[in-house]
Amino acid sequence: MTILGIDTIAVVVSDPVKAIAWYRDVLGLDIAYIGPSQPDPDPNVQGTPDDPGHWIEIGPGRPRTRIHLCHMGGTTEPGPAGITFITDDIQKDHERLRRAGVEFPMPPEKMEWGEWLSQFVDPDGNVFDLKQPISAREWEAPASPAKRRGPSRVRSDRPGGSSPGRARGPRTRPPRRSARAS
């Protein structure tokens, strides 16, 4: 067995509509996939930012790793998600996010090993790191010929343009997550 990478990381949210808006509009992440909101509908139908299903993937174009906004229903206990976002200008991003109302329990601070690090909190209380590595160049995405950015764009990076609802190997649907699994 060879581990090829990380596909998604679950972040528990209390309201998927508000979470999509925050991660898309405040952090600037692209929507990769929104599952249908009805149980077992046609797998070709996707949900929308205003009517999402359980499975929502959002993240940067590169690297491929996505955040799965995981709405568990009922009461959830937020906490450190153990996720670090990389930036090439931590001071600029800190100021942009702070102006958007994002709370920073730890403002940017240069670490003894040379990287800059800070922590911020999403509306559900999940804590994330924001890091500016010594060399951000290694994290830069390859140039994309016609990359458009827009807050309501939904795209699929799945092989063949398929969504998680379409067959793509042994698993044909994203797994239903329980409170313990996410």
Gyration radius over CA: 17 Å
User: What is the averaged pLDDT score?
Assistant: 73
Shape: globular
Largest sheet, strands/sense/barrel: 4 strands, mixed
Distance between the termini: 23 Å
What's the CATH superfamily of the largest domain, by name?
2,3-Dihydroxybiphenyl 1,2-Dioxygenase, domain 1
Helix content: 10-25%
How many individual β-strands?
8
Strand content: 25-35%
Which regions are unreliable across 5 or more consecutive residues at pLDDT < 50?
144-182
Number of helices: 2
CATH class of the largest domain: Alpha Beta
CATH architecture of the largest domain: Roll
Helix and strand run: EHEEEEHEEE
Task: Give structural notes.
The structure is a single chain. This protein has 182 residues and is of the alpha/beta class. The protein has two domains: 1-77, 2,3-Dihydroxybiphenyl 1,2-Dioxygenase, domain 1 (Roll), CATH 3.10.180; 78-141, 2,3-Dihydroxybiphenyl 1,2-Dioxygenase, domain 1, CATH 3.10.180. The chain is 12% helix and 26% strand. It has two helices and eight strands; from the N terminus they run E-H-E-E-E-E-H-E-E-E. The protein has helices spanning 16-26, 90-99; strands spanning 8-13, 30-34, 56-59, 66-71, 80-86, 103-110, 116-121, 127-132. Strands 1-4-3-2 form a four-stranded mixed beta sheet, covered by helices on one side. The longest helix has 11 residues, at 16-26. The protein is globular and about 50 Å long. Mean pLDDT is 73; it is low at 144-182.
